[in-house]
Design goal:
single chain, alpha+beta
Length: 112
Amino acid sequence: MKVGTIGLGVMGGAIATSPTAVAAASDVVVFASGDQQAVDYCVPLFEAFARSHHYLGKFGVGSKMKFVANLLVAVHNVAAAEALMLARAAGDGELDSAAVFRRYLKAAGEQE
Protein backbone atom coordinates (compact mmCIF):
# COMPACT_ATOMS: atom_id res chain seq x y z
CA MET A 1 0.00 0.00 0.00
CA LYS A 2 1.32 3.43 -0.90
CA VAL A 3 0.91 6.08 1.78
CA GLY A 4 -0.51 8.52 -0.77
CA THR A 5 -3.49 6.23 -1.36
CA ILE A 6 -4.56 6.56 2.28
CA GLY A 7 -4.09 10.33 2.50
CA LEU A 8 -0.66 10.46 4.08
CA GLY A 9 2.42 12.20 2.77
CA VAL A 10 6.06 11.39 3.35
CA MET A 11 8.67 14.01 4.06
CA GLY A 12 12.22 14.13 5.35
CA GLY A 13 13.76 16.76 7.54
CA ALA A 14 17.55 16.59 7.63
CA ILE A 15 18.89 18.71 10.47
CA ALA A 16 22.15 20.58 10.04
CA THR A 17 23.88 21.77 13.21
CA SER A 18 26.71 21.04 15.58
CA PRO A 19 26.38 19.71 19.14
CA THR A 20 27.77 22.92 20.63
CA ALA A 21 25.42 25.09 18.54
CA VAL A 22 22.38 23.17 19.71
CA ALA A 23 23.43 23.38 23.33
CA ALA A 24 24.25 27.07 23.12
CA ALA A 25 21.48 28.62 21.04
CA SER A 26 19.36 26.10 19.14
CA ASP A 27 21.34 26.99 16.03
CA VAL A 28 19.63 24.45 13.79
CA VAL A 29 18.74 24.46 10.09
CA VAL A 30 16.16 22.04 8.67
CA PHE A 31 16.50 20.87 5.07
CA ALA A 32 13.00 19.51 4.37
CA SER A 33 12.00 17.51 1.34
CA GLY A 34 9.20 15.27 0.17
CA ASP A 35 5.47 15.86 0.13
CA GLN A 36 4.87 19.64 0.17
CA GLN A 37 1.71 19.36 2.29
CA ALA A 38 3.51 17.25 4.89
CA VAL A 39 6.35 19.78 5.03
CA ASP A 40 3.90 22.69 5.32
CA TYR A 41 2.16 20.88 8.19
CA CYS A 42 5.50 20.64 10.03
CA VAL A 43 6.54 24.28 9.55
CA PRO A 44 5.28 25.37 13.02
CA LEU A 45 7.37 22.57 14.54
CA PHE A 46 10.44 23.63 12.56
CA GLU A 47 9.95 27.24 13.64
CA ALA A 48 9.78 26.16 17.28
CA PHE A 49 13.31 24.74 17.33
CA ALA A 50 15.18 25.81 14.18
CA ARG A 51 16.88 29.04 13.17
CA SER A 52 15.67 28.45 9.63
CA HIS A 53 14.09 25.81 7.42
CA HIS A 54 14.11 25.25 3.68
CA TYR A 55 11.91 23.18 1.40
CA LEU A 56 14.16 21.55 -1.22
CA GLY A 57 11.81 19.48 -3.36
CA LYS A 58 11.40 15.76 -3.81
CA PHE A 59 12.02 13.29 -1.01
CA GLY A 60 15.72 12.76 -0.29
CA VAL A 61 17.02 16.12 -1.49
CA GLY A 62 17.18 17.42 2.10
CA SER A 63 19.54 14.62 3.08
CA LYS A 64 21.70 15.29 0.02
CA MET A 65 21.92 18.96 1.01
CA LYS A 66 23.00 17.98 4.51
CA PHE A 67 25.75 15.76 3.05
CA VAL A 68 27.00 18.74 1.02
CA ALA A 69 26.88 21.01 4.11
CA ASN A 70 28.77 18.40 6.17
CA LEU A 71 31.47 18.20 3.50
CA LEU A 72 31.82 21.98 3.46
CA VAL A 73 32.28 22.00 7.25
CA ALA A 74 34.86 19.21 7.07
CA VAL A 75 36.82 20.98 4.33
CA HIS A 76 36.77 24.23 6.32
CA ASN A 77 38.01 22.45 9.46
CA VAL A 78 40.87 20.76 7.60
CA ALA A 79 41.86 24.03 5.90
CA ALA A 80 41.86 25.85 9.26
CA ALA A 81 44.03 23.13 10.83
CA GLU A 82 46.49 23.32 7.93
CA ALA A 83 46.68 27.12 8.22
CA LEU A 84 47.36 26.92 11.95
CA MET A 85 50.09 24.32 11.37
CA LEU A 86 51.65 26.62 8.76
CA ALA A 87 51.58 29.49 11.28
CA ARG A 88 53.29 27.28 13.84
CA ALA A 89 55.96 26.15 11.39
CA ALA A 90 56.64 29.63 9.98
CA GLY A 91 56.37 31.67 13.14
CA ASP A 92 59.55 30.90 15.11
CA GLY A 93 57.41 31.26 18.23
CA GLU A 94 55.78 34.57 17.29
CA LEU A 95 52.70 32.95 15.70
CA ASP A 96 51.19 30.53 18.17
CA SER A 97 47.92 28.94 17.06
CA ALA A 98 45.74 30.75 19.60
CA ALA A 99 47.11 34.17 18.62
CA VAL A 100 46.69 33.46 14.91
CA PHE A 101 43.11 32.33 15.47
CA ARG A 102 42.25 35.43 17.55
CA ARG A 103 43.79 37.76 14.95
CA TYR A 104 41.98 35.97 12.14
CA LEU A 105 38.61 36.27 13.90
CA LYS A 106 39.23 39.95 14.62
CA ALA A 107 40.20 40.65 11.00
CA ALA A 108 37.23 38.66 9.66
CA GLY A 109 34.89 40.69 11.86
CA GLU A 110 36.28 43.94 10.48
CA GLN A 111 35.46 43.00 6.89
CA GLU A 112 32.01 43.98 5.65
